[in-house]
Design a protein that fits this description.
alpha/beta; 16 helices; 2 domains; about 40% helix; Rossmann fold; 6-stranded parallel β-sheet; 15 strands; 7-stranded parallel β-sheet
C-alpha cells in the first residue's frame, strides 16, 4: 500500500452537518498523518463528537451561539464581526496546505483576506442549494469568493458542474471532480444481498403492502403537498394495498410536519412517517422496503438519495426539471420522469404499472463509486498534491 502523506488542512463549514462529520471522520481514519483543523460558525461547544474526536483543533467565532442571535439582523451583524475577529486571529498563528470551504456562504466573503493569508490553496466545495437557492445580493457577494479561490471541488454531476461554472463565471481549469461521499452507498454495497424486500417490509410492519416513499426530508422544497395532491387524484387506481412512507427526520418545521399529517388523515391516505434519527441500518431497511421513490424536489444538484434507491434496483420517479447525466444511458434516464408537479399522480401511475427499468452495468458501477470508500481516497490525493 502506498504510504500516506502528511498535510495540514482547515475545513470550514457546518461541522454538525452529516457530510462534514463523516468527511472529517473518514479522512482521519484513512490518513492518520493528516492534520485536520476545523472552523465552525455554530459555536465550538456544540460541535458533533465525530468532529471533536477526529479533528486536531476546532476553532470558531464563539463558544456558544448567544440566544440574542435568534433575531436575523442582529445575528448577521454579530456573526460578521466575530467571524472577522476569529479568522484574523487564526491567520496570525496558522498556515495550511489547503483551506477547504464547504457550502460557501456570503459571510465568508468578508474575511477573505485572512483565508488567503493562511493558505496557498483556497478550495471551495459547493453542495447545491448554495448555488441554486441564493439571492442576487448573495450571488454578488459570493462572486469574489469564487474569483479568489484556486480550486472548486465538485461532484461528478455534469449539470451541477456546468451550472456552477456559468452562474459564477468560473474558468474550467479551476474545477476538480471530487464528490461528497454517501455512507449509505457503502452500507448498501455490503448489505443489499443479505435482506430481501419482503423481510424489510416485515420489520416495518408493512408486509404485503406496496410502499411509495415520498421525498427524503421534511423541507417544503420536497413538494410533499404536490405529491399528496397527485396521490389523491389517482389513489383509486393505485394498488389497493399501497402505503406512503414520509421520511421527515430533518429539515422543515414541526408545523409543516403536522400539516402534512392532517392532509393525509383528512383524505384517508394510509401512511407511515419516520421522524426520529435513523441509523444507516434503519435507513437501509426503509429504502429496502420501498417499491418506488417519488422525488420532485425544486432543485437538487447531485442527489445521493436517488442513487441509493437505484443501486438497490428500486423504481424512482424523478422530477423532469432535474436531470442527472450519470444516471443516463444512451441518452435515456434510468428512472421514470415526472413531467411537472401537477402531473405527478398520473406519472406515478404510469411508473407503478410499468416494468422496472433495468439499470445498465456501467451506470450501476458508477453508482457504486459514490460511497466514501471511493471519494475519501480522491480527497486525500488532492490534499496530498497541495503539499508539492
Amino acid at each position: 500500500m502506498e504510504e500516506k502523506k502528511a498535510y495540514k488542512v482547515l475545513i470550514v463549514g457546518g461541522l454538525n452537518t452529516k457530510h462534514i462529520r463523516r468527511f472529517v471522520r473518514r479522512l482521519h481514519d484513512y490518513n492518520p498523518k493528516a492534520v485536520l483543523d476545523c472552523y465552525t460558525t455554530a459555536g465550538v461547544n456544540s460541535v458533533h463528537p465525530d468532529v471533536q474526536e477526529n479533528a486536531n483543533c476546532v476553532y470558531g467565532a464563539y463558544d456558544k451561539v448567544p440566544s440574542v442571535l435568534n433575531f436575523p439582523l442582529i445575528r448577521t451583524l454579530y456573526q460578521l464581526y466575530y467571524e472577522h475577529r476569529a479568522l484574523k486571529k487564526l491567520s496570525r498563528k496558522n498556515y495550511y496546505d489547503v483551506v477547504s470551504i464547504h457550502y460557501p456562504q456570503y459571510n465568508y466573503r468578508f474575511p477573505l483576506k485572512y483565508f488567503r493569508k493562511m493558505t496557498k490553496v483556497l478550495s471551495l466545495c459547493p453542495w447545491g442549494s448554495d448555488v441554486y437557492r441564493i439571492s442576487n445580493i448573495e450571488k454578488r457577494l459570493l462572486q469574489k469568493l469564487y474569483d479568489y479561490a484556486d480550486v472548486i471541488t465538485i461532484g461528478a454531476g455534469k449539470r451541477f458542474h456546468e451550472d456552477t461554472k456559468r452562474i459564477f463565471s468560473i474558468p474550467e481549469e479551476k474545477f476538480k471532480t471530487i464528490g461528497i461521499g454517501s455512507e449509505s452507498i457503502d452500507f448498501i454495497l455490503e448489505n443489499d444481498s443479505k435482506v430481501s424486500t419482503e423481510d424489510a417490509k416485515k420489520r416495518l410492519n408493512v408486509a404485503g403492502k406496496y410502499v411509495i416513499t415520498c421525498g427524503y426530508n421534511n423541507n417544503e422544497g420536497q413538494q410533499h403537498d404536490k405529491i399528496i395532491d397527485g396521490i389523491i387524484k389517482v389513489k383509486d387506481k393505485l394498488p389497493q394495498n399501497f402505503i406512503l412512507f414520509f421520511p421527515l427526520t430533518y429539515g422543515g418545521s414541526e408545523a409543516y410536519k403536522q400539516h402534512l399529517k392532517r392532509r393525509l388523515d383528512d383524505n384517508n391516505i394510509p401512511y407511515k412517517t419516520f421522524e426520529s434519527y435513523m441509523s444507516l441500518e434503519d435507513l437501509f431497511i426503509m429504502q429496502k422496503a420501498t417499491d418506488i421513490l417519488i422525488h420532485i424536489q425544486l432543485t437538487d444538484a447531485n442527489n445521493a438519495t436517488i442513487k441509493e434507491y437505484l443501486l438497490m434496483e428500486k423504481k424512482v420517479l424523478n422530477a423532469g426539471w432535474i436531470s442527472y447525466q450519470d444516471l443516463m444511458y444512451n441518452c435515456t434516464p434510468c428512472y421514470f420522469v415526472a413531467n411537472s408537479p401537477e402531473t405527478v399522480g398520473e406519472d406515478l401511475l404510469t411508473a407503478v404499472q410499468s416494468e422496472p427499468i433495468a439499470i445498465p452495468k456501467p451506470v450501476k458501477d458508477g453508482l457504486a463509486m459514490n460511497g466514501w470508500n471511493h471519494w475519501i481516497t480522491v480527497w486525500d490525493s488532492f490534499f496530498s498534491s497541495c503539499t508539492e
